[in-house]
Write a structure and sequence with these properties.
The protein is built from four helices and twelve strands; from the N terminus they run ββββββββαβαβαβαβ. The chain is of the alpha/beta class.
């Protein structure tokens, strides 16, 4: 029902969201007995690598390819609201900062993001993941076509906000950016664990918005007095959310799909 990583790619017949196969016509409840899952509770989901070639538990083969460091990760359009804002083609940016809950803009302007999300213009990485099963470039029009009328809700801290905002802005050419909603929920459970506790719990947002796909992450705002306590607290929060997701599918909507997104570094 819940997975630990998120990646998206599409073929003519399906969209792959982590371990889930989402057919273009519908999003079904995850059925662990379905042959399409190719995963069980006891399966080791560790990605295995041999040299530069890696295969994950879903069976996607690829390689880390040295493409050189002379490339930029700066987006052609990037909009920021916080300290040291950087604007590229700022006329295309929404003029006011996004609140704790927001969706893609109906006027096709680009949503702003924070935590210096536009300030990584000097970042370089000479390695690129390439796979024959993945498209060579992101196609927002095809992605919107395959998404159909489904709604996506992304919840977590500011790093999840950045991911959700990047996704909705990337979908502007396909005109389905309004179907992507981002909700700030630092700990997902509405409790303070040592840092910030902004936003509402994940289940309140989910009941209010009633999305078809829910993508969550949690990380930096859960801390403990020491490494052992921190790990125990973090695990307890994840287990609490997982149990809630199962209950939501059982009692509220058994067609919603849940996924965990890995926590990127801050």
């Amino acid at each position: 029902m819940v997975v630990s990583v998120l990646y998206l790619y599409h073929s003519p017949s399906s969209v792959i969201l982590s371990s889930f196969t989402l057919k273009p016509s519908h999003v079904a409840k995850v059925d662990e007995s379905s042959p399409s899952m190719n995963i069980n509770k006891d399966q080791d989901t560790t990605i295995e690598c041999n040299g530069s070639s890696c295969t994950d538990s879903v069976g996607i083969l690829g390689d880390w390819v040295d493409v050189g460091s002379n490339r930029s990760f700066a987006a052609p359009v990037c909009c920021a609201w916080d300290a040291e804002p950087v604007f590229f083609n700022g006329a295309q940016c929404r003029k006011e900062p996004a609140p704790h809950l927001y969706s893609g803009n109906q006027d096709n302007s680009y949503q702003q993001l924070g935590v210096r999300g536009c300030s990584c213009t000097k970042f370089t990485d000479k390695y690129e993941w390439q796979s024959p099963t993945l498209p060579s470039s992101f196609d927002p029009i095809a992605t919107c076509r395959l998404l159909g009328e489904r709604k996506v809700l992304m919840m977590g801290d500011s790093t999840n906000q950045q991911t959700g905002t990047t996704l909705m802005n990337s979908l502007v050419p396909g005109r389905c950016q309004t179907q992507i909603t981002v909700a700030l929920s630092d700990t997902l459970v509405g409790l303070n664990y040592g840092v910030l506790n902004r936003g509402k719990p994940w289940d309140e947002y989910t009941k209010d918005i009633q999305p078809d796909i829910v993508i969550v992450s949690v990380g930096a705002h859960i801390t403990g007095a020491n490494d052992t306590e921190n790990e125990e607290t973090y695990t307890a929060v994840i287990n609490q959310v997982n149990d809630g997701m199962l209950a939501y599918q059982r009692d509220v909507n058994n067609n919603v799909t849940f996924a965990w997104k890995t926590q990127q570094p801050v």
